[in-house]
Amino acid sequence: MIGASKIKQYSNVLEKPLSKGKQEVSLSAFAFLFSELVQYNQTQVDNIAELERRLEDAGYAVGARCLELLCHREKVYHIIVKLCVMFMPFWLSQGNRRETRLLGILSFVHSTVWKVLFGKVADSLEKGTEHEDEYMISEKELLVNRFISIPKDMGTFNCGAFVAGIVRGVLDSAGFPAVVTAHFVPMEGQQRPRTTILIKFAEEVLRREARLG
Amino acid sequence: MIVCVAVVGHQNNPLYIQSFTEADDALKLHHIVHCSLDVVDERVNNPKKSGPTLNETFLGLLYPTENYKVYGYLTNTKVKFILVTTDLDVRDVDVRNFFRRFHAAYVDAVSNPFHVPGKKITSRTFAERVSNIVKSFGLSST
């Protein structure tokens, strides 16, 4: 007779096997850590620009490692591979393909990176109208800014410089050097301004993109 | 038998070179690794325009010399892994598995906040993991 297996009852909670754990960190823990990071940097610098630069450098280190990690861990199943999997299992491509096109890397940042870091895709990705080399990723409210209010005398300082640094790290390691900044964009009808990450690609990226057609 | 593994950065600067035999001249192995970088660049810049080989991470057999076979692997950040082996009948699956585990060890080593990107990898844990992976290479196939 085929019997259902009995679920093992553990008498002692210490004998239960450890679970793999959730792949998330609590928001409050991150908020505390981030506030401490900002405060620490604030004591070390004299002006706002330096503070922004430091936050960006911190984000750059995160972004570079993030790209390595994502490309190794994320399993992206392409349609071609789905068919191949049935016949040749060792052709399964584990991890993302290397992005060589501008739109490819931008949508990678906009969806995959945002999803892994913040749990959701970014609100929108737009191409700048004035310049050819500008792109904008907007978010109604950045996760890192949720518990932060900027005092009036700090002017246009935005702690989203950390996220701008992350984006710059990802783009730079993927071979698309760019200047990335974070700005507040006031929206009519809404109290809190929207945050926009402005990405300005270097000359060589545009030339390469034009060459690739 | 693997004689040498190497990690080369995106500006072709060496990040980690380790040879696993005392008999062979380490300099000769370094030279082989250096020459294989040219082959990698050539494969990357002139891709064979057939489906899955475009932007694929595993580059396959780069070139066979008189005693050695050299395999290559390219990550998304243009970091290259080079594997030099003396085995004559190496299975494709084994090499892919090797590179997968090597990539995992590399990602862990780079995630270290004290590691400066572009500098040599000095982590002892990484060296131990690599020697473990090298030891178990090819053993599972028998």
UniProtKB/TrEMBL annotation, chain A:
Lineage: superkingdom: Eukaryota
UniProt entry tagged with the keyword Endoplasmic reticulum: yes
GO biological process, one term: endoplasmic reticulum to Golgi vesicle-mediated transport
Pfam families named in the record: TRAPP (PF04051)
InterPro entries attached to this UniProt entry: NO_sig/Golgi_transp_ligand-bd (IPR024096), TRAPP-I_su5 (IPR016696), TRAPP_component (IPR007194)
Coiled-coil intervals, chain numbering: none
Subcellular localization(s) per the UniProt record: Endoplasmic reticulum; Golgi apparatus, cis-Golgi network
Signal sequence interval, chain numbering: none
GO CC, one annotated term: TRAPPIII protein complex
Keyword presence, Transport: yes
Keywords of the record: Endoplasmic reticulum, ER-Golgi transport, Golgi apparatus, Transport
Quaternary structure annotation from Swiss-Prot or TrEMBL: Part of the multisubunit TRAPP (transport protein particle) complex.
Record family assignment: Belongs to the TRAPP small subunits family. BET3 subfamily.
Protein's UniProt name: Trafficking protein particle complex subunit
TrEMBL record, chain B:
Coiled-coil parts of chain: none
Database matches in Pfam families: Sedlin_N
Entry GO terms, CC: endoplasmic reticulum; Golgi apparatus; TRAPP complex
Principal subcellular localization: endoplasmic reticulum
Gene Ontology biological process terms, A to Z: endoplasmic reticulum to Golgi vesicle-mediated transport
Subcellular localization(s) per the UniProt record: Endoplasmic reticulum; Golgi apparatus, cis-Golgi network; Golgi apparatus
Highest rank taxon of the organism: Eukaryota
InterPro entries for the chain: Longin-like_dom_sf (IPR011012), Sedlin (IPR006722), TRAPPC (IPR007233), TRAPPC2L (IPR044760)
UniProt KW keywords: Endoplasmic reticulum, ER-Golgi transport, Golgi apparatus, Transport
KW Membrane (keyword) present: no
Record note on quaternary structure: Part of the multisubunit transport protein particle (TRAPP) complex.
Matching PANTHER family: TRAFFICKING PROTEIN PARTICLE COMPLEX SUBUNIT 2
Family: Belongs to the TRAPP small subunits family. Sedlin subfamily.
The protein's name: Trafficking protein particle complex subunit
Organism for this UniProt entry: Linum tenue
